[in-house]
Amino acid sequence: MSRTRIAATSTTAVLSLALAGCMGGNIPDASAPITQSEAQTGAEAHPQLLAEFGGAMTGSQAVYVEQVGKNIAVQSGLAGARDSFTVSLVNSPVNNAFAIPGGYVYTTRQLVTLMNNEAELAAVLGHEVGHVAARHSQRRQATAQRNSILGAAGAILSGILLGGNPLGQQLGQAALQGSQLLTLKFSRSQELEADELGIRYLDTAGYDPRAMGTVLSSLAAQNALDARLQGRDDARLPEWASTHPDPASRVQTALNKAAGMTGTINRDTFLTRIDGLVYGDDPEQGVVEGRQFIHPELRLAFTAPQGFYMVNGTRAVTVNGQSGKAQFTLAQYNGDLNSYVNSVFSSLSQQQQIRPSNIQRTTVNGLPAAYGTARVNNGQSQVDVTVFAYEFSNDRAYHFLGITPAGSASTFNQMYSSVRRISTQEAASVVPRVLDVITVARGDTVASLSRRMAYSSAQEERFRVLNGLASGEEVRAGQKVKIVVRGS
Fold this sequence. Notes:
Elements: H1 10-20, H2 36-52, H3 60-73, E1 86-90, E2 97-100, E3 104-108, H4 109-114, H5 118-133, H6 136-142, H7 153-161, H8 167-177, H9 188-205, H10 211-229, H11 240-243, H12 247-257, H13 267-274, E4 278-279, E5 287-289, E6 292-295, E7 300-303, E8 309-312, E9 317-321, E10 324-330, H14 337-346, E11 360-364, E12 367-378, E13 381-393, E14 396-405, H15 413-416, E15 420-421, H16 424-428, E16 433-439, H17 446-450, H18 459-466, E17 480-486
Parallel strand pairs: 1-3
Antiparallel strand pairs: 2-3, 4-16, 5-6, 6-7, 7-15, 8-9, 9-10, 10-14, 11-12, 12-13, 13-14, 16-17
């Protein structure tokens, strides 16, 4: 959760208008160049998307990703010049990649850390360029299929609370939507078309087209690992693998499409270039350590209930579990906690007025606080919506927005009571995890290298997924591999 990028709900409307703006008239086919209208659309949305995904990274790693992205993008025929494309490495801990009309392509640093060669980087970026070339977002708009543009917590939950879907599904949607602004949901046929176009671009650029299948395989493995580590029976996280559905089922299709093709992968070059990349949460955006969220810059921390897991996003931290969902974020604060709580409730829906039965004042670990709960009809059932707000200064407040089945609002009481300020010393102790690319020495094994991973659990599983190693597969002397270590 970034201090500077949480509160602006107007971004949603702006982006919705921007994407809608290129829907008029005939939709170009996949071989048509970028139109002036598409270029304008992308240029208007680009700075907002950067802000929503932690900002554009700079330095040699960002330059490298840009070079690979532009090289693969020109294979599309959308534009003849590399400078017609804008390729950004964004500072997000979520596995995601996306593109918008006008030649704007993005990948998160977290997704890059999961890749094992340059061809896989080109495959992911080529897949996204394929969506742009095929004008998938425009076609979905033109056929009135929902293009999911997501905003801050209030805007996210307003649609959830008043929908007609079952409670469990709706709460699951809230968890998915908490850490991303932009998720373009495409149909299975569109995903396969983007894969096919990406494979074509890989081939013409001289990369091994089989990289599309191997990177999808890594994404599927990471999704499954995350689900196991968090005690879930599904793999639904806001990741490229899940927002672009069924990665596991697409692996073989992609490999079949690339059968008989060969090309370069540039493994060692790639690994050398991404060495030192931040892995997981950036302390500047706060970090999740087990059940604790701690933000050294905002000087705050809280602990999620047992059995819940957290996802740290740019706008909010989501807390997810079987018995409820919550988000921690901020809004504009004028020094009055009661009006703050009421304003959060007011922002939840334009269709119906949601008000708490009353607002109560309290103190939490020395922080002035206020909270209220409202019961809301949710299809054929009811949910309790709680807003719990904390004053950190005269002009700064944060709040939880929680959803639980009716009568279960106390599910998060322990979490609400755990919010606290942290000391300068505690803040200074929060350091990032980073990738360390090493060369396997004689005598090194998967087991010995895994013990160097900066995690207290599932070290070998994490190491294998990070390096694309199958169960039982060993490393060899002289091979470059990635481990995750504590930075400085």
